[in-house]
TrEMBL record:
The gene is HflX. PANTHER family: GTP-BINDING PROTEIN 6-RELATED, GTP-BINDING PROTEIN HFLX. This is GTPase HflX. NCBIfam families: GTP_HflX, small_GTP. It is found in: Cytoplasm. The keyword Ribosomal protein does not apply. GTPase that associates with the 50S ribosomal subunit and may have a role during protein synthesis or ribosome biogenesis. GO terms for molecular function: GTP binding; GTPase activity; metal ion binding; ribosome binding.
Length: 431
C-alpha cells in the first residue's frame, strides 16, 4: 500500500465547494465563509468553479445539506461539468454516501481534502508513514463506501489515499496495516524522544501556529536553518531544529513544525505525534499568528484546541503576532495586546521585533523553575542561607559531611549560584 504518485494524479479538477451554515455559525458569519476551503482546494490542485452556501436551522443527519439542495447541486454539477464536490465540514460516511448517490459525482469532505494535501506534501519517510496512517484511519469506517462507490471515481483529489486500489482490501487488512504503521511510528517516536532527551542541556523552544502564519519565516529569522517558506497551506510537514543565540549569549534550540488548521481531524494530530514530539517537550512555545488576517482570533483558538489535544496547554507560551508590516489598520494593535497578554508584535520578514522576542524568550527561561538536587558541604552556611531565601526546598537530608537539598529554583538564580560557589554538586531531576 503506497501513496499514489501525485505527479500524475494532480489534474486540475473542477470543484464545487459547499457548506451548510447553521446556528451559531450564521450569526458569526465570516465575510467569505468558503475562502479558506477555496485556498485548500487550490493547494490540492483544483479549480474552484462554484460555491454554494445553504443556511439552515440544523445540519441534516442524512444529507448534511437538505435533500432538495443536494438535488439542486446535482443539476449545477452537470451544467458546470464539475468533477468533484468539496464540503467545508467533516461529513459522516453515510452523508458522503447519500450525497454521492444523488449528485452522482465524487463528494469529499474537509478532512479528506487536508489528507490529500498532506499526501502531496509528505517528503520524508516519517511524514509519509504519518500521512498513510491518517489516511487509513480515515478510510477504515468508510471502507463500505469505497467498495460500492469507488469504481466510478478515478484519480484526482480524494483518491490519493490508500483507498483507490483497495476495493479488495477488507477491514482486517486495514486494521493490521494500521497496527503495523503505529508500531513503526512508535519506534520513530521513541527514537525521537531519545534525541530530544539527549538535548536536555539546551533549552528548547517550539514554533507552532496556524498554517501560513509565518512559522518557517520566523524560524529562518531566528536560526541559520534554511526552512522552506511558501505562500501555500501546509508548506511544512516535518520538524526542523536549529540553534539560536540569545542576547545573554545562551544558545537555545528552536524547532519549526507542521501548521494547524481549524477542524483538523483528530487522527491527523495523533498521527503526527512523532513530528510534534519537539512541541510536546519544549520549554516554551512560540504561537505565531498572522496579525494581518481578519480571522486571527479564530485561528489562535483553533491552534489552542490542538495544543490542548497534545497536552501542551499549560506550557509557557508567547503569542507572536506576525506580519505587522502587512497590517493596514494599526488601531487593532492595542486591542490585540489587551486580549493576548503575553504577546509580542513582529515581522519575521523584516525582522522588526525579533530582538524583543529573543529578550522575552530569555526572560521566561530565566524565570523557569528547575527541579534539582543540590548537595554541599555542611560548613557552607552562606550557601545554605541563600538557598533558604531564594529556593523552594522540598526535602533536605544529611550525611556526616554533606547536606543534600531537593528543591525548586529559578534558572536565573541557579546560574548565579554556580558562579558563586564551587563546592556544590547539582543534579537536575525530572519533575
Ligand atoms: N508580509 C509578511 N509576510 C510574511 C511574514 N512572515 C511570513 N510571511 C509570508 O507568509 C507566507 C507563509 O510563510 P511561511 O513561513 O511559509 O508560513 P508557515 O507558518 O511556515 O506555513 P506552513 O508551513 O504552510 O504552515 C509566505 O508567503 C511568507 O513570505 C511577515 O512578517 N510579513
Ligand atoms: Mg512552514
Amino acid at each position: 500500500m503506497k501513496l499514489k504518485d501525485t505527479s500524475f494524479s494532480v489534474r486540475a479538477e473542477r470543484a464545487i465547494l459547499f457548506r451548510a451554515l447553521s446556528y451559531p455559525n450564521i450569526i458569526d458569519l465570516d465575510e467569505e465563509p468558503l475562502e479558506e476551503l477555496s485556498r485548500l482546494a487550490k493547494t490540492a490542485g483544483a479549480n474552484v468553479i462554484y460555491t454554494v452556501i445553504q443556511k439552515r436551522a440544523h445540519i441534516d443527519p442524512l444529507y448534511y445539506i437538505g435533500k432538495g439542495k443536494a438535488q439542486e447541486l446535482q443539476k449545477i454539477a452537470v451544467e458546470m461539468d464539475a468533477d468533484v464536490l468539496i464540503c467545508d465540514d467533516n461529513l459522516t460516511p453515510a452523508q458522503v454516501k447519500n450525497l454521492e448517490k444523488i449528485i452522482e459525482k465524487k463528494v469529499i469532505d474537509r478532512s479528506e481534502l487536508i489528507l490529500d494535501i498532506f499526501a502531496t506534501r509528505a517528503k520524508t519517510h516519517q511524514a509519509k508513514l504519518q500521512v498513510e496512517l491518517a489516511q487509513l484511519e480515515y478510510t477504515k469506517p468508510r471502507l463500505k463506501r469505497m467498495w460500492t462507490h469507488l469504481s466510478r471515481i478515478e484519480g484526482g483529489i480524494g483518491t490519493r489515499g490508500p483507498g483507490e486500489k483497495q476495493l479488495e482490501v477488507d477491514n482486517r487488512i486495514v486494521s493490521r496495516k494500521i497496527h503495523d504503521l503505529k508500531k513503526r511510528l512508535g519506534e520513530i517516536e521513541k527514537r525521537q524522544q531519545r534525541v530530544v532527551a539527549s538535548r536536555k542541556e539546551f533549552s528548547t523552544v517550539s514554533i507552532v501556529g496556524y498554517t501560513n502564519a509565518g512559522k518557517s519565516t520566523l524560524m529562518n529569522a531566528l536560526t541559520d536553518v534554511d526552512a522552506m517558506v511558501e505562500d501555500k497551506l501546509f508548506a511544512t510537514l516535518d520538524t526542523k531544529t536549529g540553534i539560536c543565540k540569545l542576547e545573554n549569549s545562551k544558545n537555545i534550540l528552536i524547532s519549526d513544525t507542521v501548521g494547524f488548521i481549524q477542524k483538523l481531524p483528530h487522527y491527523l494530530v495523533s498521527s503526527f505525534k512523532a513530528t510534534l514530539e519537539e512541541t510536546r517537550n519544549a520549554d516554551i512555545l512560540l504561537h505565531v499568528a498572522d496579525i494581518s488576517s481578519p480571522h486571527i482570533h479564530k485561528q489562535i483558538e483553533s491552534v489552542n484546541i490542538v495544543l490542548k489535544e497534545l497536552g501542551c496547554e499549560k506550557k509557557p507560551t508567547i503569542i507572536v503576532l506576525n506580519k505587522i508590516d502587512a497590517l493596514k489598520d494599526e488601531s487593532v494593535i492595542p486591542l490585540l495586546k489587551n486580549r493576548y497578554k503575553n504577546c509580542i508584535v513582529i515581522s519575521a520578514k523584516t525582522c522588526q521585533g525579533i530582538p524583543a522576542l529573543k529578550q522575552k524568550i530569555a526572560e521566561i527561561l530565566e524565570k523557569r523553575l528547575l527541579n534539582i538536587e543540590i548537595s554541599c558541604s555542611q560548613e557552607n552556611g552562606k550557601l545554605i542561607a541563600t538557598l533558604h531565601e531564594n529556593a523552594h526546598i522540598l526535602n533536605r537530608t544529611s550525611d556526616d559531611r554533606r547536606l543534600t537539598f531537593h528543591l525548586q529554583i529559578e534558572d536565573k538564580f541557579l546560574s548565579k549560584l554556580l558562579k558563586l560557589h564551587d563546592d556544590i554538586q547539582i543534579k537536575e531531576l525530572v519533575p
